[in-house]
What we know:
Helices cover 40% and strands 20% of the residues. By secondary structure, it is α/β, with parallel strands linked by helices. The protein has three domains: 8-35 and 213-307, Cobalt-precorrin-4 Transmethylase, domain 1; 37-116, 3-Layer(aba) Sandwich (Rossmann fold), CATH 3.40.50; 119-207, 3-Layer(aba) Sandwich (Cobalt-precorrin-4 Transmethylase, domain 1), CATH 3.40.1010. The strands form three sheets. It has a six-stranded mixed β-sheet with strand order 1-2-3-14-12-13, with helices on both faces. Helix 4 (118-132) packs parallel to helix 5.
Amino acid sequence: MDGDVRPMKARKRGSNVTACATETIRVIRAAHLGMCFGVRDAIALALEHADAGPLTILGDLVHNPSVLSALEAKGVAVAQDVAEVKTTTLMVTAHGTSERTLARTRALGLNVVEATCPLVHVAHRAVTTLARDGYHVVIVGRRDHVEVRGLTGDLDRFDVVLEDDDVLALEEHPRIGVAAQTTQAVEKVRHVVDLIKQRFPRSEVRFIDTVCKPTKDRQSAAAELARQSEVVIVVGGRSSNNTRELVNTCARHCTRVHHVQTDADVRPEWFDGVNVIGLTAGTSTPGDVIDRVEARIRRLAEQEASAST
């Protein structure tokens, strides 16, 4: 918290947000924001193994620059392919990977540590079930995202869709099984599923909802936050899918939404004439980063308010 501002904190009865009030502005934090348990546990596991010896992570452990910088400071290496690994211990990221990739790493004699989020494991099991039961698997998600590559890595045939045009490009199959990248907005996923059903009325379409609860909680809290705010600040990595989805959700309910990675990104002109500012953050965003962003918001908003009086 900024030392010059001493906000009263009060829980709004019946609301899904937490309000922090000052005399001139209100900064409202979403009730659900920031780091989820899967990311927190993955970071703790990486730090534990880094202390024990040399460690390489297969890709970015999480999509947040502050976390990645902290791991780099601990001497943790990052490899984009198994062939690049120079340590005896390799960690799989919170986003998971395919069994085929795991088999490659073990065949090389590497000690494999899995930091895969348990809810990503749930999504993997759902995809395996759909394929085993004879469904053509369709994943709703970003084709180039590491989690999606992991979900599809053991499949010989599959499709990845995200936008309406992607659904129009699909071929017909007698049975279509749909699952989702865990950090997609569930409303968007259900929209895509409905489009698939409309496009292929003769097909049996089975949908397994694999969007994780932390994502759903943060999405619903962000929507309520945005409806109450004049400006919304969303904190998270530029490459974080769940953060981008929070930005999109907030933008449907508030016309002024800004995505920042750190407090240095916050601009004073965003708060000119503003009384209510919403704050939320993606599931890989550390609490101290959120705190620093809020402190800068308060300081700049107070300065703007003082300048306009």
